[in-house]
Design a protein that fits this description.
By secondary structure, the protein is mainly alpha-helical. It folds into two domains: 181 residues, Orthogonal Bundle (Clc chloride channel); 191 residues, Clc chloride channel. It is built from 19 helices and no strands. The longest helix has 39 residues. The chain is globular and about 65 Å long.
Length: 436
């Protein structure tokens, strides 16, 4: 009877996550469209909108919604290690879920290069944590299980990809396989996935791709593309983990002492990058990535580097927002750069290879990266090259970034929540934001 009650609560929380994710997705589309409409005829306005928007978001994050900053996945993973349920509630609460939802939408409306995936994971974990209070004994084992199930439901909803949600929870969050946990993870993933299916129908994240890589010499380029993508992804991850090593001292001091002013500065840099790209790198750049993979539309050669910088600046500003979707877009830029060098290469095929290599380099979870890319394009014919790219991208990334980015950042966040001293000043997850 207890197991039945627990499973019903898991299903309820997964359905709630699915419904909230649908509303979140609609909000993201409308916020993105609003930004595009406002800036379409007045491109210069980004130099006002981006700084003001990012500064406002950071102010609200620190004053009203502390704990909502960043991706949301580090907070969820920190929750896995917390013994005290009160600490878990401090990072996976209704207040933080509401803040994550609203502030991420403001980020999209002001052009930040962010994604909805990390926030959806934190919202899913918060939903599980809240529903877990409904008559269940709050043991540490149950607490972990709720968070893992919430993570699976979150990724499932973000990408409409239940298998990717299951793999993410096992490989990236739990880093272990426990058959007792897996049953609950699968239940949550498919309950949330069925919710999306009933409401939206079957819609792969990027639509239906028909990429082909013919069996000839171009396969020799797959390892090259994967390694370059992995190194770039590892560099991106390392900057997020230890930004003080890469930023000038004056910028670091500004981030620590005047975080709202620093966010405005980041917004100004973002505006300059976006203006130089003719608007292509604002928001998640979903349309550019989709067009490359589904329609074979070749993005400009500088799309990848500019998207890399725009995402970096957006995240370091301290606003809520994920890095999944922007990282996928950067990966498309890495892969399609080879098409610029060697015209005639298949755009869609190399977009997928570059995406898998770079994304695996960022998260250092090759199975998760490969499954996400395959499932969100509904193109199993690319399984082998995408799998190769994900493995090589992860291996290359570890030469640059020794610890997976989400694990390193979860440790930083855990120190903040538990009032332990940080080893270095950090601009990625500002300590005061989780304290006040």
């Amino acid at each position: 009877m207890a197991a039945l009650k627990r499973n019903l609560i898991f299903v309820l929380a997964a359905i709630i996550t699915g419904l909230v994710s649908i509303a979140f997705g609609i909000g993201v589309v409308r916020a993105t469209a609003l930004f595009q409409n406002v800036t379409a005829q007045r491109g210069w306005i980004v130099f006002l909108l981006c700084p003001a928007g990012l500064a406002l978001i950071v102010y609200l994050t620190r004053q009203v919604f502390p704990g909502a900053q960043g991706s949301g996945i580090p907070q969820a993973m920190a929750g896995l290690q917390m013994q005290d349920s009160a600490d878990v509630d401090s990072v996976l609460s209704l207040r933080i879920a509401v803040g994550k939802f609203l502030l991420t939408l403001i980020g999209f409306a002001t052009g930040a290069s962010i994604g909805k995936e990390g926030p959806t994971v934190q919202i899913g974990c918060a939903a599980m944590n809240i529903c877990g209070r409904m008559g269940l004994e709050r043991t540490h084992a149950l607490q972990r299980l709720l968070i893992l199930a919430g993570g699976a439901a979150g990724i499932t909803c973000a990408f409409n990809a239940p298998v990717a949600g299951i793999i993410f929870a096992i490989e990236e969050m739990a880093r272990s396989f426990d058959d007792r946990q897996v049953r609950s993870i699968i239940l949550a993933a498919f309950a949330s996935g069925i919710t999306l299916l009933f409401v939206l129908g079957y819609q792969p994240y990027f639509g239906f791709s028909h990429a082909v890589l013919r069996l000839d010499w171009i396969w020799l380029l797959i390892p090259v593309c994967a390694v370059i993508g992995g190194l770039a992804g590892g560099l991106f991850a390392q900057i997020l983990v230890t930004p003080w090593k890469f930023l000038p001292g004056a910028v670091n001091r500004l981030a620590q002492k005047r975080p709202v002013v620093f966010a405005a500065f980041c917004g100004l840099v973002l505006a300059a990058i976006g203006y130089a790209s003719h608007g292509m790198v604002f928001d998640a750049s979903y349309a550019n990535a989709r067009d490359a993979m589904v329609s074979g539309v070749l993005p400009p050669v500088d799309f990848g580097p500019l998207k890399f910088l725009a995402t970096l600046v957006s995240y370091l500003s301290g606003i809520p927002g994920g890095i999944f979707a922007p990282s996928l877009a950067v990966g498309v830029g890495v892969g399609t750069a080879f098409v610029h060098l060697l015209p005639g290469l298949p755009v869609a095929g190399f977009a997928m290879v570059g995406m898998a290599g770079y994304f695996a380099g960022v998260v250092q979870s090759p199975l998760t990266a490969a499954v996400i890319v395959i499932e969100m394009t509904s193109d199993p014919s690319m399984s082998v090259p995408v799998g190769i790219a994900a493995i090589l991208g992860t291996m290359a990334s570890r030469l640059v970034c020794k610890e997976p980015v989400y694990h390193a950042m979860s440790h930083q966040f855990l120190r903040v929540v538990e009032n332990r001293p940080m080893p270095k000043p950090n601009t990625v997850e500002p300590a005061p934001a989780a304290e006040h």
